[in-house]
Amino acid sequence: MESCLTLDSSLPRFQTIVRLRWAATRTKIVASPSLPLDADVVKRFLTQRWFLIALFAVLASGITGANLLEPIAANKALRDCVVAAVLFLMALPLEASAMWRSMSRPWPPLLAVAINFGLLPLFAWAVSLGLDPVMAPGLLVAAATPCTLASASVWTRRAGGNDSVSILVTIFTNATCFFVTPLWLLAMTGKTIDNPDLSLSKMAMKLGLLVVLPMILAQFLRLHKPLASWATRSKPLLSVCAQCGILSMVFFGAVRMGLRLGEADATELAPFTLFAMLVAVCTVHITMLVTGVWLARLFRFSREDQIAVAFASSQKTLMVGLLMAMSLRVSILPMVTYHVMQLLIDTLIADHFRRQGESESELKESGDAR
């Protein structure tokens, strides 16, 4: 998988990058003699890994304290506000021209949609044949849901990708899920969804309020030139705030998982059943992410678009998945597990992409200096 996730590599380049990083590290240590080496190492580690550490802490607290924290996680208005706030923070530093460029070159978002709503459900269908009958329908529900409302764009930006592509994928998949998702579930499970919350009017209203309206508001505020300049300069800070919003969404999912584990029967909690479900979920997500990178590279998309396709083609939204699982009366554990694991896995992959981009930038600057 490492080779598939490496967008450009060679041994001489790797050796040059190692030398550059070692030189930079020595420079930092010499320039800051008053800062002990151990403190410097800890500081850099926390700066690079703060989100992963916070992610594990949120997961642990949400699962173990599920009964106590249920009133917070059950607050739908709070969940919706978090999603809208994350999309607003993502859209505020985003120039409208970037969205128009992505719309004028629609192949990256169309590829991500084709994988998310086409290849991924087919692959999950095949994987589900090896699962316990209790868990298999839940995996199919997760596979048929649309792309995440916020986290795909947050991770794309964290990795240095084109977040306008992932936003377009979010809008398209969520706008069409009222039609595409029930068809997939009817084909794979033979069951129909009878839930008013998944109707065209409900989905359109949800998409408009949680995704489109925050983006329009952010772009309207950018008409004020000083604010637009500040938002562009503060893009890293706004991205960190958006990631904190993602942690809140993980918290909601962790509480649901803790509650479900407390209510599950012996069949669902059998160790082998849980392990097989976890492996299946991770296999589907990672395979589709790598497939997105590979196909985007095959079509010669830019590095930024490759990253966007990878995340947008493999992530799934929790809210729609839970509605479908409860409507079909199947286990919600695969959906919640998919949501949690995609964030854990994609944190590591986004950091990998970001470090790779930084290394390539250092190499380019070194070449220009020569």
Structure description:
The protein has helices spanning 2-5, 11-31, 37-64, 66-73, 76-91, 96-104, 107-128, 136-144, 151-158, 163-189, 200-221, 225-233, 235-263, 271-298, 303-314, 318-328, 333-369. By secondary structure, it is an all-alpha fold. The protein has a single domain (74-360), classed as Na+/H+ antiporter like fold. The protein is globular. The protein starts with a helix and ends with a helix. Residues 25-35 have low confidence and may be disordered.
Provide key terms for this protein:
370 residues; mainly alpha; Na+/H+ antiporter like fold; 17 helices; globular
- Summarize the biggest pleated sheet: none
The backbone outline, from C-alpha atoms, is: globular
> In the CATH scheme, what's the topology name?
Na+/H+ antiporter like fold
Order of helices and strands: HHHHHHHHHHHHHHHHH
Runs in which pLDDT lies below 50 for 5 or more consecutive residues are 25-35
**Averaged pLDDT:** 81
- Strand tally: 0
**Radius of gyration over C-alpha positions, nearest whole angstrom:** 21 Å
- Assembly category: single chain
Number of domains: 1
- Beta-strand residue fraction: under 5%
Count every helix, treating DSSP H or I runs of 4 or more residues as helices: 17
CATH class: Mainly Alpha
Judged by helices, strands and strand pairing, the structural class is mainly alpha
At CATH level 2, the architecture is Up-down Bundle
Helix fraction?
A: over 70%
Short description:
The chain is mainly α. It has helices at residues 2-5, 11-31, 37-64, 66-73, 76-91, 96-104, 107-128, 136-144, 151-158, 163-189, 200-221, 225-233, 235-263, 271-298, 303-314, 318-328, 333-369.
